[in-house]
Amino acid sequence: MNFFLLILILLMFHGAKFAPAGIHEDYLSREHALNLRGVFTIIIVMTHYMLYFPYTNPGNEQFTYVWTFLDQLVVVVYLFFNGYGTVLSVEKKGWPYARNLLIHKLPDTWLKYALVTCLVLAVHSFMQLKYTLGSVLMAFTGWHHFYHDDQWYVVMILFMYALFFLAYLPLRRHSGEKALKICTGVAAVLCCGLIFVISRKKDYYWYNTMPAMLLGMGWALYHRPVEKLLERSGALYAACLMMCALGLYVFRIHQDESLLNMFMLVILFMVTILLCSMKVSLNNPLLAFFGSHSFTIYLTMRIPMLVLQRYELVYSQPAICLLLILLCSAGLGMAVDRAGDALSQRLHPVIDRLADRVEGRLSK
Description:
By secondary structure, this protein is mainly α. The chain has 16 helices and 2 strands.
């Protein structure tokens, strides 16, 4: 695993752009965001591989340390850019984008999850695993545990799309910076309410990284003043980076003592990534590929793991097995994305007509 970790580090630096003075203006660009998502997607596949096939090589300590330190933090980047990208898109496109969160993005996301669930059921059928009709139907909701516990991310994203739509409803008749900030504040309050409700129903990991999305929403509105301050003073930048590093160390040790400690760890981890991104901008096409299909790779990665569990290769050639899982997950993820996008293109006109009818009746 250390070998794969080294390859990942080399991929990060291959094509990277450095800013010895000032900060990168494009550190929040889509390309850099895809690269970051790609890095953590590969790490997630590697860590889940370790869960299925414990890798006891004595030279594996470095990756084990990275895995232990990151734990739930591997999803922080996804949640941050989800919140950041949503607010930024609403700021640029207004109500039409907020409307599409409910009628396009929400069903598109669920559709891809449903396609992966169908794939899993097919694999389980091939492996002669039996399920009741009720458990199969509940699997498509994502609310109950099916064959893994990764569906929490899907459910939380679907909830947030619906809450974003509700929060930005006033933009139908009001526009401008003030309206955007008020609506984003309402979205943040609704997100906090969702965290509270979910905490009463689900396990800790369902909601403990959600502050990253709140940070993304706030960063979309207020990142420019922060950037100006850090660009003027290299000493201030260095001080912020050292404080974040110290905070990460302290809150990582005490993260299990309270939920607030975990929230602080999530925020400091993402701020540290942002500070590093201001100086180093990733630009690797392979990482960007994994980042562009991160959602479906995240959902499909367990399928090849389930299949390979049946063969001795995983124990005799673990490195080859991991490479096969990465390739299969990437292939499955890309296939699900293409199939989901093709189905969505056919469904969007139908959904648009239904939405127009509903809006027409409500406006009467």
